[in-house]
Amino acid sequence: MSREPARRWREPPRRHPRNLILLRAGDASLHGEWTRGADRDFDIFVSYYGQAEGRHLDDADYYESRPGPKWPALAALLRDHPSLVDAYDAFWLPDDDLAADTDVLNRMFAFFHAHQLALAQPALTRDSFFTWSTLLQAPRAQLRFTGFVEVMAPLFSRAALRVCAPTFDESRSGWGLDWVWPTLCERAGLGRIAIIDATPVRHTRPVGGELYRRHPDMVPRADAERVLKKYGLDEVRAVAKYSFRSQVIESTLPLRQRVLFWLKRINGRRKHAFRP
Predict the structure, then answer these.
(1) Residue 156 phi/psi, 5° resolution?
(2) What burial letters (b/e) apply to 157-191, b meaning 16+ CB within 10 Å?
(3) What is the pLDDT of residues 160-201, one digit of tens each?
(4) Which domain holds residue 98?
């Protein structure tokens, strides 16, 4: 039996009504680990930018092949398929070199919804390649409310995606966009922005290497300067990455309270044992 050839666009019946991963994937993409769990709570749209026909077709709920850098390609994808934005509640737009499993990503989406976030990203494990140390997983934290997320792995609500998507093709490298998005969200009344420390992912490759190798004509700093100037944010980089406001942390109950609950649990079991 011959293998089904790759098509530019494939759309299956939707199984997961809330969450969608929009992934620009190359030949060495790590997303196979993300989708191996039997009970994943997300669909995945693979937008393949390589040359091998049908590469990653079997790993995708939606599939296309499309050349070009990540952010302009995602802008074009969303323009071509606007119904996607209406079909889901949360959208993760990660790089393809992030290591995670299905359980971590299910929990990431669950935290995003539970805390009613507009814009977020998972923290990076402490053995990751990174640009900003503030995005590494914080000990004991579940999430930290902030004014900055990185283009590596942003997670948008539907409302936030509508606000931010028009910027995607304003920077070929993506530089500058991660400073603009929190500002646009806050201006739109979508100010719940956080780093999700409870579900860290591992960034496995040096920052920017593959992107710049494939697109040597890029000038990232010029992209950032142009985008920041357009939105009046020339000085935002000096403060945004340190703009943490509050955090949700694990906290051990005081000894007295733990003993009280232990006694109540014992009493509850006793009552249950003698119930007629």
Answers:
(1) -115, 140
(2) bbbbbebbbebbbbbbbbbbbbbbbbbbbbeeebe
(3) 999 999 999 999 989 999 989 999 999 999 999 999 999 999
(4) 19-273
Domain count, the chain: 1
Is residue 122 a contact partner of residue 232, using CB atoms and an 8 Å limit?
no
pLDDT at 236 > cutoff 60: yes
Count of CB atoms situated within 10 Å of the CB of 259? 11
Comparing 243 with 13, the larger pLDDT belongs to 243
Domain of 208: which CATH number? 3.90.550
Phi-psi group of 192: left, alpha or beta (phi > 0 → left; psi -120 to 50 → alpha; rest → beta)? beta
Helix, strand or coil, per DSSP, at residue 158: helix
Q: Token digits for 44?
A: 């995945």
Whole-number Å distance between alpha carbons of 23 and 200: 18
